[in-house]
Queue: 2 jobs
Job 1
Amino acid sequence: MTKIHHGWWILSGTLISQFVSISIMLMISGVFLEPVVQDLQIEVWQFAFVVSLSSALGAVSLIIFGPIVDSIGPRRVMVIGALCSAASFIGLSIQSSLFALISFHVLCGAFGFTLFGPRILSPTISKWFIYYRGWALTVGSVGVSFAGIITPVLMTSVVDSFGWRTGYLVLAATILLIILPVSMVMRRQPEDMGLLPDLVAKSDIDTTENNLSSALMDDTDRTYTRSLAMKTSSFWFVCIGYGFNMAALSSVVIHGIPFATDAGFSRTLASVALGISGVGNLLSKLLWGWGLSRYDARRLASLAFCISGSGVILLLFSAIGNNIAMLLLGFFLYGFGFGGTIPVSEFLWARYFGRRYIASIRGAGEPFVMTFAMIGPILTGYVFDIHGSYTMAFSMIIVSYIASAVVINLSSDPPRINNSLH
C-alpha cells in the first residue's frame, strides 16, 4: 500500500475492529443473559453486574494504555486485546460458576475487547484527520452499526441452536481471525509516515489547502496534556454528560431482548428488534457526518440523546399494547440516536483538547464515564428483580437521557493555551 492511501486502511481497520469490539462489549450481552442466568442459576442483576464490571475495568485499563497508544500507536495494544479476549471466551465456554464467570469477564474487559475498541481507535482517527475529522469518525464508527444489525440476530441463532458455550467459542475464533490481521495495518499518526493529517504529504506542506493549514494551527492551540485537561470544567461536564448517556445506552443493549420477551414478544423477534437498532444506527451516520462539519457538536449530542430517549418511550408503549410496529420503531430510534455517540463524542474531545495527547485524555475520562455505564444495567436489573417488570427501570433510562442532554450543553470550549509550556 502507498503511504498516501494508508489513512484509508486506518479507517477500514477501525470500522472492522469496532464491529468486533462493540459486538463483544454490548451486543452479545442480551443474547447470553437468559440462557446463562438459567443454566448457572444466578440473578439477572448478577449477570448485569458481571458484564458491567468487565466494561468498567476496561475503562480503568485505558489510564495505562491511553498514553501507550499516544506513544507507540495501537498495533501492539490491539494484539494484547485480541489474545486476552479469545482466551477469556474459551474460558467462559467451559466454566460453570458465578466466580468463574466473573473472573473471565474481568480478564476480557480489563485486557481484552477495550484494547481494540472505540476508545483506542477513535483517538487514532483523530490524529489522522483534522479538517475531515467529523466524516472520518463517522465512517470509522459504521462498524458499531453493523454490530447492532448483524450480531444480535446471528448470535441468537448460534446460541439457540448450539448453546451458549458454543457461542462463546465462536466469538473467540472470530476475534483471532479478524483482529490480529487488522492490527497489522494500524499506525500511530500520519507524521510517522511522512504525511500530514487528512492524507496530505509533508512534501506538499507549502501547497496545503488553507482549510487544513488553519485546522492544524487551531489544533496546536488546543493541545492540552492529560493533567491540564483534567483541570478544566469541560473535561468533567463531558465525562458526566456521556456517563448518563452510557448508563442509558448500555442498559437498553443488555436488557433490550429480556425487556421484549418479558413484554410477551418472542426471543427471535426481540433479537430482530435489537438488530433494527443497528439499522437506525447505520442510517444516522449521514446525519452526524454532515452535522459535525456544520453545527456545534454539543447540540448534536443533545439531539442524539433525545432521539434515543424517544425510542425508549416507544418501547414502553409497545409493551402496554404488545405492538410489534411500535417495538421496532422504538428500537430504530434508540439506534438512530446511538449512532451519534461515538463520532460526536470523539469529535468533541478532540475539539476541546487537541489530538496530540487525545488517547491519554480519553483514557483518563473513560473510568468516570464507564462508572455510569456499569451502574445503569445493574440498577436496571435490580429494579426489574424487585418489581417483576421493566416499566420502572426503562422510565429511569429516559430520565438518564434527559440528564445527559442537559449536562453536555453545560460544557464549553476550554481556553487556548501556550503550548510552549509542554
Note: The mean pLDDT is 85.
Job 2
Amino acid sequence: MIKEIPLTPVKTLIKTINLTGVREDIFKKIDINILLERTKNRLKNTSNESLGKIQMLHTSCKDNMLTIYDDWICKKKIIDPRTFGIIIDRFVKLMYQTEQINEITDTDVISIINTSNVVTYEEQTKNAKTKEIIDQLIYNLSQSIVAYKKTNNPYATLTELIAESYFLTIMDMQYKQNQFSDSEYLEKLKASKSELRTIFIKHPDIAWLTNVLSFTSYMYLVSTDNKFTCDDIISCDYSLTYDTPIEKDCEISGHISGEIDFQSQSEILDLKISKSNFTMDHIMQVALYYMLSSNKENIKTLTLYNPLLNQSLIISPNDIFKVNNIGEIINITATKYLEKKL
C-alpha cells in the first residue's frame, strides 16, 4: 500500500498532501491580501530610482500584459504557459548572474552557464554530439552577452539575447521532464535561436512581454540588498516505518528533491509567471524548499514574485508552519493516506 504514495519530487509531495487532506493540519491559512500589503509597504520607501520607474511602467502596462499573455500564451499557445515561464526563469537567472560582474569576459559567462544544473546534468549524459552542439551554443551566447554589456543601448538588443538563450529552456525541459527523444532534442537545440526569434518576429507583442517580464524580474531581485545564488538543489532522504491491519512493521525509504530559484543567506525567492493569484500550493512549495534548505536556520524570509501581476508575497517561515520538520510532514501524509485507503 505504501508504494502507492508518490513522495518525490517536491511538487509531487505537495499533490500528496492535498490528496490526503493533511494540508490544514500543517499549514496555517494565510490572508493573501495582508501579505501583499506587506510587500507594498516594503517597496514603498525604496530609494532605488530605476526600480521606481520600472515599477511604474510595469503597473501602467499590467492590463495590456495580461491581455497578451491570455490571448497568445494561454489560449492560442504560441508558446505554452509552462515553456514561457521557463524562458523567463532561465534568462532572468542568467541576466542576474552576469550583471553582478562589471568587467565580464566570455570565460566568465561560460563558467556561469556551465555550472548551471541543466548543463551539469547534460555533462553527466556524456553524449558527444549533444555536447558539441551545446558547447557551441554556450560559446555564441557568451560572446553576445559580453557585447550586450558593452553596448550603449543594451535594452534594444534584449529580445535577441533572450532568443539566443532559448536553448537553456530546452535543456531545462529535457532535464526535468525528459520531454524529447534524442533526435528531437538535438534538432530543438540546433534550431533554438531561430525558433524563438521567428515567434518574436511574427508576434512582437510576445517579444515585448518577454522583454518586460525579464527586465522587471531582474529589477525586483536587485531591489533588495541580498546576493542570490541560482538553482540551489535541495533534497531529503526519508525513511518510514508503518503499521496497518494488512502490513506490520514495514519500512520504506526514498528521496525528495527540488530546485530553489533564488536563495540568499536570509531569503528564498520563487519566481512565478501566472495570470492567477498565488495559491496555497505555491506557498507550500516555497515552504518545503525552506524545510529542505541546508541554510534553513538563517532563512528569515520566503518570497513569491509574479511580475505579470506585479505581485509579491513576502512571509516569515514562522507565519506558515505548525510543523516545521519535513520528516513529520511525510509521516503525517503517509498516515493520512493509509487511513483513507483502508
Note: The mean pLDDT is 83.
